[in-house]
Amino acid sequence: MVDLGHSLGLTIVAEGVENAAALEQLAAYGCDNAQGYYFSRPISVDAFDDWRSDYVEGIQLGAVPSAAS
Prior knowledge:
Strands 1-2 form a two-stranded parallel sheet. Helix 2 (about 20-30) links the parallel strand 1 (about 15) and strand 2. The chain contains three helices and two strands; from the N terminus they run αβαβα. The N and C termini lie far apart (about 35 Å). The chain is elongated. The mean pLDDT is about 85. With about 70 residues, it is mostly helical. Helix content is about 50%, strand content about 5%. The chain has helices spanning about 1-5, 20-30, 45-60, and strands spanning about 15, 35. It has two domains: about 1-40, no CATH class; about 45-69. The longest helix has 17 residues, at about 45-60.
């Protein structure tokens, strides 16, 4: 599916990523982006800015933070 999408000039987003192993496999397939519980459980709009700041900081430190409660 990734190759098909790329051949059509599309950016591929995988949904439902729940663990590091799935993310690593998607990266090996050449998937462009991913979303899912591995990154965050659903959060309110109000909590998003704080989550985003923490997430970016976590990436810079080499870790993926969990979502705010």
